[in-house]
Amino acid sequence: MGDSIFNCCYVPPHPPGDREPPRTRRAEIMASISNDKRFLIFFDFDETIVDETSDDIVVQAAPGQYLPGWLKDTYQPGRYNEYMQRVLAYLAEQGVTESDIRNVMEKMPATPGMITLFQFLRTRPQQDFEVVLVSDANTFFIESWLRRAGARQLFHRIFTNPATFNKDGRLVMRPFHSHDCPRCPDNMCKQVVVRDYVARRTQERGRPYQRVFYVGDGANDFCPAHSLGPRDVAFPRRDFPMHRLITEIHEAMPGEFKAVTVPWVNAEEVVQRLRRHVVE
Fold this sequence. Notes:
By secondary structure, the protein is α/β, with parallel strands linked by helices. It is 38% helix and 14% strand. It is globular.
């Protein structure tokens, strides 16, 4: 990724992946997030921030850069998190180290224009954007890439599946939460995360955000975007599943999807739209 794109020093407010910190600790975390932010922007990670799927890229750390057929055959729809736990266990059994996994994560390319978007968000006045990441990847994959890119300090919160290395050197991943949404994988419904976060922050701030933005690509990004209001903006990556699902619901049920929809190919298109809103 080259040198850091950011120069300021920053200590992350808390380890990402916490389902919910203890109340006293959560109060400290939230106190570190300024309540004068005008806008809230959510990002997905895989194929949104990075131009790959981290769960696929980790296979490059395996011997021969492939997984055996018997392992791939254990995947069951809707239970991808459990499948990845088996993949990570296999990698550990094959002698793949923490450093090996970090190295392949750090090499993932950013999506076109994403670094420009990050620079735009960082250079805006402090009261403009509260930036949150919501991903079905895991803490280690995400932290590895963000820190190598110098972008970790941009994110106030990261919601994803917790993952830590145990004493045997195996990366152990746990599900983020449980939920009742029939559309989403068992381990994470991003709409639950987004809806709860917006509600909690609105209460803590004593007022709503001017607008909420959501930048994503996948089918599991459609679910949280569906909860946005008419003043909010969904940024689906053009021709990816999130965009197709939004297009389908617009055609089948006009007015059901309330947010303004702005598809993008290059994240600089997101920057152009955000520039319009910050002068409101």
